[in-house]
Amino acid sequence: MELKDIFSVIRKWWWLMLLATLIAAVFSYFASLSTPKLYQTSTTLMVGQFIQNPNPTGQDFYASTQLAQTYAQMVKRQPMLTATSAALGMGDAGRSLGDQVSAAIIAGTQLLEIRVVDTDPKRAQVIADELARQLILQSPSPEKETQKQRDFVTGQAEDLQNKIKETQGAIDKLQSQLTTETGARGVQDLQSQINGLQQKVTTWQGNYASLLTFLKGGQVNFLSVVDPAPLPARPFSPNVRLNVLLASLVGLLLASGGAFLLEYLDDTVKTGEDVERHLGVPALGAIGRIQDVENPKDQLVTLNHPRSPISEGYRVLRTGVQFSSVHNPGGMLMVTSAMPSEGKTTTISNLAISMAQAGKRVILVDTDLRRPSVHRIMGMSNGVGLTNLILDPNMKIEDALQPGPVESLSVLTSGPLPPNPAELLGSPEMHRIMDGLQSRADMVLFDSPPILAVADASILGGRCAGVLLVVDAGRTRTDMARRAKETLDQVGIKVLGVVLNKIGSRHGGSYYYYYYSSDDSGASASNGKVRKGTGKQRGFSWPWSGASQKMQ
User: Fold this and answer.
1) What is the pTM of this model?
2) 476 is in which domain, residue-wise?
3) Tens digits of per-residue pLDDT, 3-31?
4) 3-class DSSP state for residue 292?
5) Is 470 helix (H, G, I), strand (E, B) or coil?
């Protein structure tokens, strides 16, 4: 899909995308407002007391990290939750604490964070603090150690401290005596005493350090609250703005996907590019949809509104027909469609008027002997017509022709409906009538039945210089149009081109949307007389007034 095709899809389905986005946003907004507000708070604990230790080891940090992971798992276990709910007197409400509580280690630290979510901010705060308290109660602490052992170790440490101080004082005295001693033997004796005392001090210092380590043995597996749970000031969920934004985005994506899927599955003929790609013939014109048709004659826009964009589309079609039949400028042209209700009668009637307005002698013949419509659009009687000429060889063509709504246009209606239309259209009398019509006009236009419905068009088209295939844009499927083209090709009928009928503004492109810089003050022929235009055309805007009218 090319970039212009993407923009074309967006231009066509923008209303669906906008509607889906708005619906998703509104639904998400009210759904978020009806959702209970949730508050979150957390209590932070530290495992160990290494901040107070001037020389912690790596082994101590590793041990505290492993302990913190264990405590994080313990927080959500049932014994901890049961103890917490019992302490707070929550009763049966405490059974759902497991869905409200989570715990995790803060990466790279020995900090353990206990998070609690609740619809009541105060209750969330109380639960978080109580969980931390219960976790501390279930962990070992220095107060639980045997006091007798600690007293003994403390006494031993104090005794060693006193001995070290006394011995160090004795060493200092011997050091002062050593400075005044002059005899060699005396110096040697003093030095021996000093060395002996220093060995005792070294031994006592090692024992003292061991006793201190024992006294500090509870630091690794020790829990303390670093940051109590604060009272949440505002809920963290629902996030109305984020929910609306995400819902709008999802709605837009779903609508866009649906629009592109519909376009992918839509195999109707919509543009001139579709015509050339699938049928291999040019699109000679694109005709807009005629609105507000109250009676059949309202469909003659080239007569009623000659300066409208749709009338301009028929003039473009007229020019395209002239160029496509340049090697056979005067002759017979048949207009047909793949299926009924594609607008072939409206197309051929306005084309005939447009050619007559250009000074051509035109005869419009209704060869649809099953469901004729030309007489209704032209506002004529269908008592005498083509079937009368075929069945009565003595009847003259002029006796069946009726004057059209403009000069140089004559109309031959179908006449009474026969039981065998195909046999009549293929009869020698029909060939004689066609030759007579061609000799009396510059162009003879035949309105035929749909090519795929009956065989009439195939029988009639062989005598014509070419065929125009009318396609209802956005409604006629590609395979139907292709089958119609193949049917005409099989019987040797030349397809001059395709007319895209009932086309919308998003598919019309540059075919027929134009600005007009003058009013509709020209004249239009009606029944051989000049009728003054009203200047109020429907379907386009006057450049100087901004008035917008609807076109039939």
Assistant:
1) 0.57
2) 272-532
3) 777 887 888 889 999 999 999 999 999 99
4) coil
5) strand
